[in-house]
Design brief:
This protein is mainly alpha-helical. The chain has one domain. It contains three helices and no strands. The N and C termini lie far apart (39 Å).
Amino acid sequence: MGLIWFLIVGFVAGLLARAIVPGRDTMGIMQTIVLGIVGSFVGGVIAVLFTGREFTDYSNSGLIGSIIGAIVALLIYRQMKKA
């Protein structure tokens, strides 16, 4: 069940990041899931740096951190795509 939940949270975070950041992105479902998973990782690292909590700790703000991380990852992806 953990893997399925991880994929669902990644998909939701990726979708919300793509909806928040203006512009057109030609990504499929798998790329959106990967974006959300990368965003979850980035958001987790940011949370560890600012709060000092364990990386494995789960909190209700995890989805928000995942979305913020996905936004950062999406912006980096767009910059890399331009080059």
